[in-house]
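quick one: iron/sulfur cluster bound model?
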Amino acid sequence: MGLSRDEILSAIYHCVKCKLCSIASFHPDEEWLPLCPSGQFYGYQAFYAPGKMEIFRELLEGNISEPSEGLLKAVYACTLCGACYEKCSKVSSVEIRLPDLFEEMRRELAEKGWALDAHRNIVDKINVTKNAYGEVGNKNRYSNKYPDADVLYFIGCTARYRVPEIADSMIAIFDKSGIRYQVMEDEWCCGSVLLRTGQKEAAETLIAHNMDEIKASGAKTVVFTCPGCLSTFRHNYPDMGVELLHSTEFLAKLGINVAENRDKKVTYHDPCHLGRDLGIYEEPRAVLTKVASITTMKREREQAWCCGSGGGVKSAFDDFALWCATERLKEAREAGAESLVSACPFCKRNLKEAAEKEGEGMEVYDIVELVNEAL
Ligand code: SF4
Ligand code: SF4
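yep, here:
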């Protein structure tokens, strides 16, 4: 990203502390719903976007010699969901995305040796196993059947090791649709979790390795079921001259051939990386509408409530992550949905965990699972 100190300070001074970034409606006579999970859960000014910017200013101006536990919590207990930026950009001319600014702040802290232990542990795991969960053993569960195929499926750590039903469904869709696809025999973590937690240097070898592998594969299109991986490839990897598509973009382009079935009453949760970050709102809905009947939650698209899993929050503040997901489940129920559907392994994992904890029977799916069922 490489923002200069002046650019950062200018963005910080831009903030007039109006706090519109904390609410999901502009209309005073309608409902004003919370938008910033961090501020809403912790309930203190430092956890909202303007508070975080003040912390960054103090840091840059050299006024923080040793961060307190509370300060580190305000910085890191933020899902980098970007809802604050969406709102701020409607009322101000701020140019730097606030998640980018907060990521830069984490980089400053990490350079001073103040990264969280939970996040340092991820670096250690990746150094040894090349995946964010430190898993060994089932790496080759997905074998490369067509090494010369034009399409390559980048599975990602979370679908590979935590939510394999997503990877299995995507692969089944390829097979059922007669699409020849590659998977990487030696896929490494994309580096997203390291970049989001300010540990950029540690991500560089991962980026170089994955780029070499993809170039050597000869693939022309890389498909992702993980919006976090896709965002990292689009924003943090140098251009490889290949097409990078989310599964829902790929399926919308392909025009999946299913007998339309709208028996399931679902609601769609926009993943932050897919929606606010990459601007992909229509394709998931276009695909989902073929296999289910969609009912709408109050906070959706640019104003969607985050699932709580991103930005290194799930690994460091699981209680906060699960609270965010529980709030989303409530909203899905209020919308009259029987199932909550997303398009991201992080969302599915956290929402499903919260649903199981609640025990109230809300089913949680990824779009590719419903498409696979319908094929
Ligand atoms: S909406 Fe923008 S200007 Fe207003 S408080 Fe939030 S970050 Fe600051
Ligand atoms: S990125 Fe999300 S959680 Fe973090 S301050 Fe902005 S709205 Fe709140």
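The chain has three domains: 5-114, 139-253, 259-374.
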